[in-house]
Amino acid sequence: MTKESSYTAKLPGPDGLYDYTPDEDAIWGELYRRQMKLLADMACREYLDGVKMLGLKPDKVPQLLDVNRRLNETTGFGVEGVPALIPPSRFYELLSQGKFPLATFLRRREHIDYIEEPDLFHEVFGHCPMLTNQSYANFVRHFGETAVRLGKGYSWHLFRIFWFTVEFGLINTPHGRRCFGAGIVSSPSEAKAAMEGKACEFRPFDLLSVLRTPYRIDILQPIYYVIDSFADLEAIVEQDIEATILKAKSLGDFAPAFEAKAS
Protein backbone atom coordinates (compact mmCIF):
# COMPACT_ATOMS: atom_id res chain seq x y z
CA MET A 1 0.00 0.00 0.00
CA THR A 2 3.01 2.25 0.28
CA LYS A 3 4.93 3.09 -2.88
CA GLU A 4 6.33 6.08 -4.69
CA SER A 5 3.73 8.50 -6.05
CA SER A 6 3.98 10.85 -9.01
CA TYR A 7 1.73 13.28 -7.13
CA THR A 8 2.41 15.54 -4.17
CA ALA A 9 -0.13 15.93 -1.39
CA LYS A 10 -1.55 19.41 -0.96
CA LEU A 11 -1.21 20.99 2.47
CA PRO A 12 -3.88 23.19 4.06
CA GLY A 13 -3.36 26.85 4.84
CA PRO A 14 -3.59 28.33 8.35
CA ASP A 15 -7.38 28.44 7.95
CA GLY A 16 -7.53 24.71 7.18
CA LEU A 17 -8.46 25.32 3.54
CA TYR A 18 -6.73 23.79 0.52
CA ASP A 19 -5.82 25.90 -2.48
CA TYR A 20 -7.16 24.37 -5.68
CA THR A 21 -6.61 26.01 -9.05
CA PRO A 22 -9.31 26.92 -11.60
CA ASP A 23 -8.10 24.02 -13.75
CA GLU A 24 -8.50 21.63 -10.82
CA ASP A 25 -12.01 22.99 -10.24
CA ALA A 26 -12.74 22.31 -13.92
CA ILE A 27 -11.40 18.74 -13.71
CA TRP A 28 -13.48 18.08 -10.58
CA GLY A 29 -16.58 19.44 -12.34
CA GLU A 30 -16.01 17.33 -15.44
CA LEU A 31 -15.56 14.18 -13.36
CA TYR A 32 -18.56 15.00 -11.15
CA ARG A 33 -20.97 15.65 -14.03
CA ARG A 34 -19.88 12.56 -15.94
CA GLN A 35 -20.29 10.24 -12.98
CA MET A 36 -23.56 11.68 -11.68
CA LYS A 37 -25.14 11.22 -15.10
CA LEU A 38 -23.90 7.65 -15.23
CA LEU A 39 -24.81 6.69 -11.66
CA ALA A 40 -28.45 7.78 -11.65
CA ASP A 41 -29.56 4.22 -12.45
CA MET A 42 -26.45 2.38 -11.22
CA ALA A 43 -25.70 3.55 -7.67
CA CYS A 44 -27.75 2.59 -4.63
CA ARG A 45 -30.09 5.11 -3.03
CA GLU A 46 -27.88 5.44 0.06
CA TYR A 47 -24.96 6.59 -2.06
CA LEU A 48 -26.99 9.13 -4.05
CA ASP A 49 -28.56 10.45 -0.84
CA GLY A 50 -25.05 10.81 0.58
CA VAL A 51 -23.93 13.00 -2.31
CA LYS A 52 -26.79 15.37 -1.48
CA MET A 53 -26.11 15.29 2.28
CA LEU A 54 -22.48 16.25 1.70
CA GLY A 55 -23.50 19.11 -0.57
CA LEU A 56 -21.13 17.97 -3.32
CA LYS A 57 -21.42 20.14 -6.43
CA PRO A 58 -19.65 20.40 -9.78
CA ASP A 59 -18.55 24.03 -9.55
CA LYS A 60 -15.62 23.71 -7.12
CA VAL A 61 -13.39 21.11 -5.50
CA PRO A 62 -14.92 20.49 -2.05
CA GLN A 63 -12.99 21.46 1.05
CA LEU A 64 -12.18 18.75 3.59
CA LEU A 65 -13.39 21.00 6.42
CA ASP A 66 -16.88 21.04 4.89
CA VAL A 67 -16.90 17.29 4.21
CA ASN A 68 -15.70 16.61 7.75
CA ARG A 69 -18.37 18.85 9.29
CA ARG A 70 -21.22 17.30 7.33
CA LEU A 71 -20.11 13.75 8.11
CA ASN A 72 -19.83 14.59 11.79
CA GLU A 73 -23.38 15.93 11.70
CA THR A 74 -24.78 12.78 10.09
CA THR A 75 -22.92 9.74 11.44
CA GLY A 76 -20.17 11.10 13.68
CA PHE A 77 -17.51 10.04 11.17
CA GLY A 78 -14.79 12.37 9.94
CA VAL A 79 -11.97 12.70 7.43
CA GLU A 80 -8.27 13.50 7.63
CA GLY A 81 -6.03 14.68 4.81
CA VAL A 82 -3.03 12.41 4.20
CA PRO A 83 -0.43 11.70 1.49
CA ALA A 84 -1.84 9.56 -1.32
CA LEU A 85 -0.42 6.31 0.01
CA ILE A 86 0.12 5.63 3.70
CA PRO A 87 1.24 2.52 5.62
CA PRO A 88 -1.53 0.00 6.34
CA SER A 89 -1.06 0.44 10.10
CA ARG A 90 -1.79 4.18 9.86
CA PHE A 91 -4.69 3.57 7.48
CA TYR A 92 -6.35 1.12 9.87
CA GLU A 93 -5.62 3.32 12.88
CA LEU A 94 -7.45 6.27 11.34
CA LEU A 95 -10.46 4.11 10.43
CA SER A 96 -10.61 2.81 14.00
CA GLN A 97 -10.80 6.43 15.19
CA GLY A 98 -13.71 7.17 12.87
CA LYS A 99 -11.57 9.16 10.44
CA PHE A 100 -11.37 8.29 6.77
CA PRO A 101 -7.93 9.13 5.32
CA LEU A 102 -8.23 11.29 2.20
CA ALA A 103 -5.63 12.08 -0.43
CA THR A 104 -5.64 15.84 -0.99
CA PHE A 105 -4.35 16.08 -4.57
CA LEU A 106 -6.56 15.93 -7.66
CA ARG A 107 -5.59 13.95 -10.75
CA ARG A 108 -4.08 15.79 -13.70
CA ARG A 109 -5.96 16.01 -16.96
CA GLU A 110 -3.84 13.31 -18.60
CA HIS A 111 -5.13 10.92 -15.92
CA ILE A 112 -8.74 12.05 -16.00
CA ASP A 113 -10.08 8.67 -17.14
CA TYR A 114 -7.92 6.47 -14.91
CA ILE A 115 -5.50 6.92 -12.05
CA GLU A 116 -4.12 3.93 -10.17
CA GLU A 117 -3.53 5.70 -6.87
CA PRO A 118 -6.42 7.29 -4.96
CA ASP A 119 -6.91 11.01 -5.53
CA LEU A 120 -9.34 13.50 -4.02
CA PHE A 121 -12.10 12.66 -6.49
CA HIS A 122 -11.91 8.96 -5.67
CA GLU A 123 -11.78 9.73 -1.95
CA VAL A 124 -14.51 12.37 -1.62
CA PHE A 125 -16.86 11.46 -4.47
CA GLY A 126 -16.19 7.73 -4.14
CA HIS A 127 -15.91 7.08 -0.41
CA CYS A 128 -17.51 9.89 1.54
CA PRO A 129 -21.18 9.72 0.42
CA MET A 130 -21.56 6.22 1.88
CA LEU A 131 -20.12 7.41 5.20
CA THR A 132 -23.40 9.32 5.70
CA ASN A 133 -25.09 5.93 6.19
CA GLN A 134 -24.84 4.87 9.84
CA SER A 135 -24.59 1.11 9.27
CA TYR A 136 -21.89 1.63 6.66
CA ALA A 137 -19.97 4.07 8.87
CA ASN A 138 -20.19 1.63 11.78
CA PHE A 139 -18.81 -1.13 9.57
CA VAL A 140 -15.83 0.97 8.48
CA ARG A 141 -14.98 2.01 12.04
CA HIS A 142 -15.31 -1.52 13.44
CA PHE A 143 -13.31 -2.90 10.53
CA GLY A 144 -10.50 -0.50 11.47
CA GLU A 145 -10.72 -1.53 15.12
CA THR A 146 -10.48 -5.19 14.13
CA ALA A 147 -7.47 -4.53 11.91
CA VAL A 148 -5.67 -2.64 14.67
CA ARG A 149 -6.40 -5.41 17.17
CA LEU A 150 -5.26 -8.26 14.92
CA GLY A 151 -2.12 -6.53 13.68
CA LYS A 152 0.24 -6.88 10.74
CA GLY A 153 0.02 -10.63 10.24
CA TYR A 154 -3.63 -10.33 9.22
CA SER A 155 -3.38 -7.15 7.18
CA TRP A 156 -3.33 -8.67 3.70
CA HIS A 157 -6.44 -10.79 4.22
CA LEU A 158 -8.24 -7.98 6.02
CA PHE A 159 -7.78 -5.71 3.04
CA ARG A 160 -9.61 -8.24 0.89
CA ILE A 161 -12.69 -7.53 2.99
CA PHE A 162 -12.19 -3.81 2.38
CA TRP A 163 -11.56 -4.36 -1.33
CA PHE A 164 -14.74 -6.32 -1.99
CA THR A 165 -16.97 -4.02 0.07
CA VAL A 166 -15.75 -0.45 0.54
CA GLU A 167 -13.89 -0.35 -2.79
CA PHE A 168 -15.90 -2.65 -5.06
CA GLY A 169 -19.09 -3.52 -3.22
CA LEU A 170 -22.50 -4.13 -4.78
CA ILE A 171 -25.87 -4.47 -3.06
CA ASN A 172 -29.14 -6.14 -4.00
CA THR A 173 -32.07 -3.70 -3.96
CA PRO A 174 -35.76 -3.85 -4.96
CA HIS A 175 -34.65 -2.22 -8.22
CA GLY A 176 -31.93 -4.75 -8.91
CA ARG A 177 -28.21 -4.85 -8.22
CA ARG A 178 -26.68 -1.44 -7.45
CA CYS A 179 -23.15 -0.25 -6.73
CA PHE A 180 -21.76 1.49 -3.65
CA GLY A 181 -18.03 0.73 -3.72
CA ALA A 182 -15.80 3.76 -4.26
CA GLY A 183 -13.79 2.08 -7.00
CA ILE A 184 -17.00 1.59 -8.98
CA VAL A 185 -18.83 4.87 -8.41
CA SER A 186 -15.75 6.99 -9.14
CA SER A 187 -14.82 5.19 -12.39
CA PRO A 188 -16.91 5.27 -15.58
CA SER A 189 -15.35 2.11 -17.00
CA GLU A 190 -15.71 0.16 -13.73
CA ALA A 191 -19.31 1.30 -13.23
CA LYS A 192 -20.30 0.22 -16.73
CA ALA A 193 -18.48 -3.10 -16.41
CA ALA A 194 -19.95 -3.87 -12.99
CA MET A 195 -23.51 -3.00 -13.93
CA GLU A 196 -23.56 -4.51 -17.42
CA GLY A 197 -22.01 -7.71 -16.08
CA LYS A 198 -20.80 -9.00 -19.43
CA ALA A 199 -17.26 -9.95 -18.44
CA CYS A 200 -17.48 -10.48 -14.69
CA GLU A 201 -18.96 -12.78 -12.08
CA PHE A 202 -21.28 -11.83 -9.22
CA ARG A 203 -21.10 -13.82 -5.99
CA PRO A 204 -23.16 -13.51 -2.80
CA PHE A 205 -21.00 -12.12 -0.02
CA ASP A 206 -19.45 -14.86 2.08
CA LEU A 207 -16.63 -13.92 4.43
CA LEU A 208 -14.56 -17.06 3.97
CA SER A 209 -14.84 -16.85 0.18
CA VAL A 210 -13.87 -13.18 0.17
CA LEU A 211 -10.80 -13.93 2.26
CA ARG A 212 -9.69 -16.53 -0.29
CA THR A 213 -10.22 -14.35 -3.37
CA PRO A 214 -7.15 -12.64 -4.86
CA TYR A 215 -7.51 -9.41 -6.81
CA ARG A 216 -5.56 -6.99 -8.98
CA ILE A 217 -5.80 -3.24 -8.56
CA ASP A 218 -5.01 -2.27 -12.15
CA ILE A 219 -7.76 -4.06 -14.10
CA LEU A 220 -11.53 -4.07 -14.32
CA GLN A 221 -12.63 -6.44 -11.61
CA PRO A 222 -13.59 -9.95 -12.78
CA ILE A 223 -15.39 -10.79 -9.51
CA TYR A 224 -17.78 -8.75 -7.38
CA TYR A 225 -19.32 -9.79 -4.08
CA VAL A 226 -22.90 -8.66 -3.45
CA ILE A 227 -24.48 -7.91 -0.06
CA ASP A 228 -28.22 -7.88 0.66
CA SER A 229 -28.30 -4.92 3.06
CA PHE A 230 -26.05 -2.50 4.89
CA ALA A 231 -27.14 -4.13 8.14
CA ASP A 232 -25.58 -7.32 6.75
CA LEU A 233 -22.44 -5.35 5.96
CA GLU A 234 -22.25 -4.08 9.54
CA ALA A 235 -22.69 -7.65 10.81
CA ILE A 236 -19.57 -8.85 8.97
CA VAL A 237 -17.29 -7.44 11.66
CA GLU A 238 -19.32 -9.19 14.35
CA GLN A 239 -18.10 -12.54 13.02
CA ASP A 240 -14.94 -14.21 14.29
CA ILE A 241 -12.71 -12.66 11.64
CA GLU A 242 -9.47 -13.93 13.16
CA ALA A 243 -10.63 -17.55 13.07
CA THR A 244 -12.00 -17.14 9.55
CA ILE A 245 -8.71 -15.70 8.30
CA LEU A 246 -6.83 -18.63 9.81
CA LYS A 247 -9.24 -21.01 8.05
CA ALA A 248 -8.79 -19.13 4.77
CA LYS A 249 -5.02 -19.41 5.11
CA SER A 250 -5.26 -23.15 5.74
CA LEU A 251 -7.52 -23.69 2.72
CA GLY A 252 -5.49 -21.42 0.45
CA ASP A 253 -6.57 -18.92 -2.19
CA PHE A 254 -8.94 -19.58 -5.03
CA ALA A 255 -7.32 -19.64 -8.46
CA PRO A 256 -7.01 -16.04 -9.72
CA ALA A 257 -9.70 -14.96 -12.17
CA PHE A 258 -7.14 -12.83 -14.01
CA GLU A 259 -3.76 -13.13 -15.69
CA ALA A 260 -0.65 -12.38 -13.68
CA LYS A 261 0.63 -8.83 -14.05
CA ALA A 262 3.57 -8.58 -16.42
CA SER A 263 6.77 -7.76 -14.55
Automatic annotation (TrEMBL):
Fe cation binds at residues 122, 127, 167. It comes from the Bacteria. Its EC number is 1.14.16.1. Its cofactor is Fe(2+). Pfam families: Biopterin_H. Residues 1-263 form the Biopterin-dependent aromatic amino acid hydroxylase family profile domain. InterPro entries: ArAA_hydroxylase (IPR001273), ArAA_hydroxylase_Fe/CU_BS (IPR018301), ArAA_hydroxylase_sf (IPR036951), Aro-AA_hydroxylase_C_sf (IPR036329), Aromatic-AA_hydroxylase_C (IPR019774), Phe-4-hydroxylase_mono (IPR005960). Pathway: Amino-acid degradation; L-phenylalanine degradation; acetoacetate and fumarate from L-phenylalanine: step 1/6. GO terms for molecular function: iron ion binding; phenylalanine 4-monooxygenase activity. GO terms for biological process: L-phenylalanine catabolic process. Keywords: Iron, Metal-binding, Monooxygenase, Oxidoreductase, Phenylalanine catabolism. It catalyses: (6R)-L-erythro-5,6,7,8-tetrahydrobiopterin + L-phenylalanine + O2 = (4aS,6R)-4a-hydroxy-L-erythro-5,6,7,8-tetrahydrobiopterin + L-tyrosine. The keyword Nucleotidyltransferase does not apply. Belongs to the biopterin-dependent aromatic amino acid hydroxylase family. This is Phenylalanine-4-hydroxylase. The gene is phhA.
